[in-house]
Amino acid sequence: MSLENRIFSSKxxxxxxxxxxxxxWRYIEVKIGFYGASKAGISLALYFKEHGLEIxxxxxxxxxxxxxASSMTKTHAFKSPEKxxxxxxxxxxxxxxxxxxxxxxxxxxxHLSQKVLGHxxxxxxxxxxxxxxxxxxxxxxxxxxxGQPEDVQILKKAVFSLExxxxxxxxxxxxxxxxxxxxxxxxxxxxxxYHLAATVASNYLxxxxxxxxxxxxxxxxxxxxxxxxIKSLSSxxxxxxxxxxxxxxxxxxxxxxxxxxQKHYNALPDEKKTAFLELLxxxxxxxxxxxxxxxxxxxxxxxxxxxx
Length: 308
Known about the structure:
Distance between the termini: 44 Å
CATH superfamily of the largest domain: NAD(P)-binding Rossmann-like Domain
Oligomer: single chain
CATH topology of the largest domain: Rossmann fold
Largest sheet: 9 strands, mixed
Strand order of the largest sheet: 1-9-8-7-6-5-2-3-4
Shape: elongated
CATH architecture of the largest domain: 3-Layer(aba) Sandwich
Number of strands: 9
Helix content: 40-55%
Radius of gyration: 24 Å
């Protein structure tokens, strides 16, 4: 496996040992600021502080949000981005992906060329930072964050992804060294697929669970009962997937039970039938990988028959 896509312990000597340790020693007191009082920014500020990193504070276009974030993190609320830049060695642009280029392009400070800038986007590369600075990086926590103190515990188990130029990655590795999390280094061209995979395992999983919830709701079950059922089923399915991916699929798709699949298809409203077939195709892909050709062919025949 290449260096760019393997997983590292933050304590692993990925670079030559002596120069890296000298670098860490030189910049150990790095000061970190956040442009944007986003949920991810607040969560990371809390987490970084927990691990002894110095956080200067927050700037936000809506000053009240900066005040709230600084209050939560016991840091400073800056009234201008210039003041935040002046106070920080590293600046995280913690805002929506849509505005990262524009904000970075309009940043100004006479000392900006001495600063390192990073962002938290999973999909964008460090090239989205459109200003001259000492180094650029993207550091993305592969975790859902709500901007609350309890996120500190959640982040302890999170894997981070890292991409950037040489100077940017060096600084990011100092941060990773301090917090102790595992991380993966990404090539620029892999970031979109990497982020897509993360959204499938998180955001779209939530949408799928809600699909199940609405079906249970349709037959009159109470929320408490529905959540209990979904929790039991989904937890066991995830555990089985992690233990034995190729052999964890159960149910009518895994058996090639076309009669039951037809009943399920008929029970759905028309606007949900296509989604059901697409999910069945994904299940069929797993069955094909498992080399269960008989079941795979039954599923393909069923999908083709109901589509036409």
